[in-house]
Write a structure and sequence with these properties.
CATH class of the largest domain in chain A: Alpha Beta
CATH architecture of the largest domain in chain A: 2-Layer Sandwich
CATH superfamily of the largest domain in chain A: GAF domain
Number of domains of chain A: 2
Distance between the termini of chain A: 9 Å
Structural class of chain A: alpha+beta
Strand order of the largest sheet of chain A: 5-4-3-8-7-6
Largest interface: A-B, 71 and 71 residues
Order of helices and strands of chain A: HHHEEHHEEEHHHEEEHH
Shape of chain A: globular
Low-confidence stretches of chain A: 6-16
Number of helices of chain A: 10
Oligomer: homodimer
Chain lengths: 268, 268
DNA sequence: CGGGGTCGTTCCGGCTTCCGGAACGCGGGC
DNA sequence: GCCCGCGTTCCGGAAGCCGGAACGACCCCG
């Protein structure tokens, strides 16, 4: 079991010039369902620029394998088998395994939603999210991926990874709320601050009213340490960045440090 | 958004005579990683009876699409993209959406691990599992699929679905502990009892020391109601089937009923 | 330190199997 | 009831895939 897979391979939408053309096409078909819950053959064909008959066969083949499931009237959606595979993939990460109990304790301590995230491309992918039952307003739970620039976890990860920083800047800092930091200079400044203080914050930048605090999980030999992942606490801005902020910062940092040493101890 | 996909298609390991041979093969390659965390080309080729070169290309193509990731030294593992797809698949289930808050409340009430499961093939697939932080011994969290015959959720589902009952019996009642019900007659009797009392129990049958109580989530017009899913509470046998049993049974049944009506209200 | 075994990857020719266009059947809507 | 749009099926041509063998790297062991 490894800490994290080597390279989260950036998704070239390489439908072109790959070996196993039909397999690449099949993957592209799957990708269509990332942005749409249900699709039929015609729409898939149009989106990928392939023949309708090809799309139909692809859909049928993927459905035969359980990766898609057939809804009524010839439409398809993502299949539950993908859920199984996905659970397996993440269950086998050493990172998640050692982080889980510590995340649980953090949640008990801070009584807010806590998250564990890694970078994939220029996004943050949340491997785990533990919600607190009685934490006032319910946090939206229907996303598992955010643009890294408007996330405290993304900021922590970018702060220790120049190439991620570059990738994020190249993609552009999309505005999501009036508070999103979209000026590249100011955004780089937040990274400097993150490095100095050892944690990052994100105030109202992704969803107005919601803020978060994140701290890095480090790996690698001392002197060449890099953040592979990060822990964060997220909640309404007043709860997270108000009077409790120092306590939350300390809790998040302590949790991240504990995960870091647990990884070293357990890891290869 | 639908309650649940139509037919959890039984996995014919149909590598044979399907259209899109290479896609079917690719899916079969993915399946290899269900039982093994890391595999190389040689082992995949041997397991599927294909040429080593073919396996190598398949692995490379799947890795290019992010469904697999390359570990060091030419071995592969399931990719995080599968986790994303899997989360999407389950996020789009109406069942899970309406069940989540009710499951959360149930967990608060009973202070034990609660689960939401559906049948896929002759197994129970757990769509959700909420653990309680302070619930004594930690429950194993590293499985997402169990044989239905030795699970309270499976018993509830089989009790309302004759074809599932048949499928389970055909597959055979595998013994997992000394307490597993492996005699078909006795097992059918547990289904009768389940139907009579409206809930099912499972005492030490899957993991010795652990037991569970489950109640059905129903769907369909009255008179033709069937269980699409089930809620369960699981914990150490003494805690779950001891003095608290009546309270837990009531809690589980009430939660399942609430989910049932919430589904009717929200569903099509 | 070097050799043999194993494994992942690449190359290439023959041919399997896939692609695209057109036709079919169906369902829903103006 | 007609038409439009959709999912599916059929077919020929040829594109891309499969398998065997060769290559190079790595590791284990002597």
């Amino acid at each position: 079991m490894t800490v994290l897979p080597f390279s989260p391979p950036v998704s070239d939408d390489a439908l072109e010039d790959a070996p196993l053309r039909s397999v690449s096409t099949a993957v592209a078909v799957l990708d269509c369902f990332a942005s749409e819950a249900e699709l039929g053959a015609t729409k898939v064909a149009a989106r990928l620029g392939i023949a309708k008959s090809t799309a139909c066969r692809m859909l049928a083949a993927l459905a035969a394998g359980g990766l898609l499931e057939k809804a009524g009237s010839g439409r398809y959606r993502l299949g539950l088998r993908l859920f199984e595979y996905g659970q397996l993939a993440v269950d086998r990460l050493l990172l998640r395994e050692v982080a889980m109990p510590i995340l649980g304790e953090l949640r008990e301590t801070v009584r807010e939603t806590v998250q564990l995230g890694v970078a994939v491309g220029t996004d943050v992918l949340y491997l785990e999210r533990l919600e607190t039952a009685g934490a006032g307003l319910r946090f939206r739970t229907d996303y598992h991926r955010n643009p890294a620039h408007s996330s405290s976890i993304g900021r922590v990860l970018a702060a220790s990874d120049p190439s991620l920083t570059m990738a994020i800047l190249e993609r552009g800092l999309e505005r999501r709320t009036p508070f999103t930091v979209v000026d590249p200079r100011r955004w780089r400044q937040t990274l400097v601050q993150t490095r100095e203080q050892g944690y990052a914050t994100c105030r109202d930048e992704y969803d107005q009213g919601w803020s978060s605090i994140a701290a890095p999980i480090l790996t690698g030999a001392s002197g060449r340490r890099r953040a592979v992942a990060a822990v964060s606490v997220v909640g309404s801005t007043s709860r997270v960045l108000g009077p409790r902020k120092p306590a939350l910062v300390q809790g998040v940092r302590r949790a991240a440090e504990r995960i870091t040493v647990a990884l070293e101890r357990a890891g290869s």
